[in-house]
Design goal:
alpha+beta; 3 helices
Length: about 90
């Protein structure tokens, strides 16, 4: 089994690129999610966040600075670990 993990290209000829660390150099516009708020389809929520009960109190809604219709949910835990008010 380890052979196939190390040589993943044998199982997946369309190997994706490796992840690398990047640091944000810009700001992100966000607002708090209001419990009971009906979110439009323009707010993306990941499958994992939905499975964890989002949207919920403490979550944030982020938007693209240049395209305000591009919005996504940021979980409370991720927000608290990675963001501070500018």
């Amino acid at each position: 089994m380890q052979y196939f993990v190390r040589n993943f290209t044998l199982l997946n000829p369309h190997k994706m690129s490796d992840f690398e660390l990047y640091r944000k150099i810009n700001y992100t516009e966000m607002r708090p999610y209001i419990v009971g708020e009906v979110l439009s389809d323009s707010v993306s929520i990941s499958k994992e966040d939905r499975e964890n009960g989002s949207p919920k109190d403490g979550d944030m809604i982020a938007r693209n600075y240049w395209n305000h219709s591009d919005q996504w949910l940021v979980s409370k835990a991720f927000f608290e670990d990675n963001y501070t008010l500018a």
